[in-house]
């Protein structure tokens, strides 16, 4: 039955499914994991950095992108689709600043991205964007925000969430370990993001990349690598500036 | 006939048959060229079972030559990785033969001279207990080749006093359930067994209307017909390529009777598995 209703995006199936949107959500699961945590005074985005080919320039493989000085986004899914969405969002941030002389709120830019994605689920001949995004930042009022969008064009605010491959496992970890105490301290919030990613990240030279925004401070992107001190000791984590 | 939104006209399938069937049949009589093409294609698609050292074909079926009491078959890259890390590393296994075949899904173009590195189904037995057999099958065996594979491995009259365990994986979107696939705890394990299989299974049974496909289905059907106790452990996953979490989802079966004594060092096996993952990673820039 699915095969007759999944060719054109604008067709509902008899039981109310938009199969292209659901298939786009499968494409998101093919991307590596990204986790977002909203702390009391900090927002953290952590991604599993995919290992690059030997001859490939590492700097061009980016999963975390700044949309503006105070807003940052991580995505999972089709790389090319993400590039298009990020470019549009960046232009919108500047356009908004020029027009109303205020930087965008995190909710505004999330709504813009979600509306853009929704348009592509209702147009003839176009397929949906195959990405989910985690958008973090601080608004002018100093309140930290974390939003998640998906290919259908919905967006929601979250305290902590994960997208991409094995997102369910990471989300279950966060549900168990996200407490008010855990996020009260900035370092604890960062450690929670790292621990959540380590539930699913494969070891052996793989790195984790973090983006941190503290209140009234600019975005920082760090690289974390696992280092084994001794075979029998617990693994230690060293933060290096990437 | 039906028209789609783009204006293309699509012929609706009709189970009653088409009206011009008789006319078509007249033009379809087989010529000698057709017969020759068919013969060549059959030769190309033949399943060959080769001995290890001499690389000559086996005259009898594999299990007739090497009778076994326990046969574990891994089909697909995740199941093969699971056996490589947890089972073949825990004992001394000797290769007894391999099955070579060609079909449209194969990457090689040369069908006659398949190189030694292209063994698709490799058979091993445990040196300390040669009645324990293992098969690692990482290729796709097409529908027309499955019967040949079964005949060459099991033979036309198999023994009944052996137990077969099959491991394979499938994409979770093929799992039919009233829940949405987003809420399923993938990867998860399901089991399907033949009537003669009496041991307890390590996970819940596969519910209707789900079905099993390809070689695992062929082996299980064969075992059901010949009254051989067999069980299939099917891992539904949302990552079809080689993936650590999918392979680890097979771990519950290590506690079953089949694997007792075969797995010795689990932490070391987990390390082996992680190494296997990193060496096998295929670089793709489409998804980030």
Automatic annotation (TrEMBL), chain A:
Task: Indicate the segments annotated as coiled coil, or none if absent.
Answer: none
What name does the UniProt record give this protein? Proteasome subunit alpha type
Report if keyword ATP-binding is assigned: no
Q: SUPFAM superfamilies in the record, alphabetically?
A: N-terminal nucleophile aminohydrolases (Ntn hydrolases) (SSF56235)
Q: Which GO terms describe its biological process?
A: ubiquitin-dependent protein catabolic process
This protein's GO CC annotations: cytosol; nucleus; proteasome core complex, alpha-subunit complex
Q: Which Gene3D superfamilies match?
A: Glutamine Phosphoribosylpyrophosphate, subunit 1, domain 1
Subunit structure of this chain's protein: The 26S proteasome consists of a 20S proteasome core and two 19S regulatory subunits.
* Encoding gene per record: PSMA8
Automatic annotation (TrEMBL), chain B:
Give one Pfam family: PAC1
UniProt entry tagged with the keyword Cytoplasm: yes
Could you state one GO biological process linked to this protein?
proteasome core complex assembly
Q: Where is the composition biased (Basic and acidic residues)?
A: 26-37
What InterPro entries does the annotation carry?
Answer: Proteasome_assmbl_chp_1 (IPR016565)
**Chief location:** cytoplasm
Q: Which family does it belong to?
A: Belongs to the PSMG1 family.
Query: What is known about its subunit structure?
Result: Forms a heterodimer with PSMG2. The PSMG1-PSMG2 heterodimer interacts directly with the PSMA5 and PSMA7 proteasome alpha subunits. Forms a heterodimer with psmg2.
Protein name, entry field? Proteasome assembly chaperone 1
């Amino acid at each position: 039955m699915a095969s007759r209703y999944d060719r054109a995006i604008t067709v509902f199936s008899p039981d109310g499914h938009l199969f292209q949107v659901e298939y786009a959500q499968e494409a998101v699961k093919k991307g590596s994991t990204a986790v977002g945590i909203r702390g009391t005074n900090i927002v953290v985005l952590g991604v599993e950095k995919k290992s690059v080919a030997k001859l490939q320039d590492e700097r061009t493989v980016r999963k975390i992108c700044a949309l503006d000085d105070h807003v940052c986004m991580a995505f999972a899914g089709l790389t090319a689709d993400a590039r298009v969405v990020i470019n549009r969002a960046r232009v919108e941030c500047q356009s908004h600043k020029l027009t109303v002389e205020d930087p965008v709120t995190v909710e505004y830019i999330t709504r813009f991205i979600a509306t853009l994605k929704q348009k592509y689920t209702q147009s003839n001949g176009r397929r949906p964007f195959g990405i989910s995004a985690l958008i973090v930042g601080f608004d002018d009022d100093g309140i930290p925000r974390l939003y998640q969008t998906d290919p259908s064009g919905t967006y929601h605010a979250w305290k902590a969430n994960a997208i991409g491959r094995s997102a369910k496992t990471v989300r279950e970890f966060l549900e168990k370990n996200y407490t008010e105490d855990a996020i009260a301290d900035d370092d604890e919030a960062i450690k929670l993001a790292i621990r959540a990613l380590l539930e699913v990240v494969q070891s052996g030279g793989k790195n984790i990349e973090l983006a941190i925004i503290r209140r009234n401070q600019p975005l920082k992107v760090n690289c974390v690598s696992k280092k084994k001190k001794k075979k029998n000791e617990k693994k230690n984590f060293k933060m290096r500036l990437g | 006939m039906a028209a789609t939104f783009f204006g293309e006209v699509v012929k609706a399938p009709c189970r009653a048959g088409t009206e011009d069937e008789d006319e078509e049949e007249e033009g379809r009589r087989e010529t000698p060229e057709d017969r020759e093409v068919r013969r060549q294609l059959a030769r190309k698609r033949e399943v060959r079972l080769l001995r290890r050292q001499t690389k000559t074909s086996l005259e009898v079926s594999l299990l007739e030559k090497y009778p076994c009491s326990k046969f574990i078959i891994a089909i697909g890259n995740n199941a093969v990785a699971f056996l490589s890390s947890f089972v073949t590393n825990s004992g001394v296994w000797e290769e007894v033969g391999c099955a070579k075949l060609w079909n449209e899904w194969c990457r090689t173009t040369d069908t006659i001279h398949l190189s030694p590195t292209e063994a698709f189904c490799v058979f091993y037995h445990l040196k300390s207990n040669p009645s324990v057999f293992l098969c690692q099958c990482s290729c796709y065996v097409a529908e027309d080749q499955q019967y040949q594979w079964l005949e060459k491995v099991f033979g036309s009259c198999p023994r009944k006093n052996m137990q077969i365990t099959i491991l394979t994986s499938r994409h979770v979107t093929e799992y039919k359930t009233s829940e949405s696939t987003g809420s399923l705890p993938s990867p998860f394990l399901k089991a399907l067994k033949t009537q003669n299989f009496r041991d307890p299974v390590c996970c819940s049974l596969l519910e209707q209307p789900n079905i099993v496909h390809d070689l695992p289905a062929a082996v299980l059907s064969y075992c059901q017909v010949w009254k051989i106790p067999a069980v299939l452990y099917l891992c539904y996953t949302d990552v079809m390529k080689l993936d650590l979490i999918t392979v680890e989802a097979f771990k519950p079966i290590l506690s079953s009777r089949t694997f007792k004594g075969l797995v010795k060092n689990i932490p070391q096996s987990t390390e082996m598995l992680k190494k296997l993952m990193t060496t096998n990673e295929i670089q793709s820039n489409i998804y980030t």
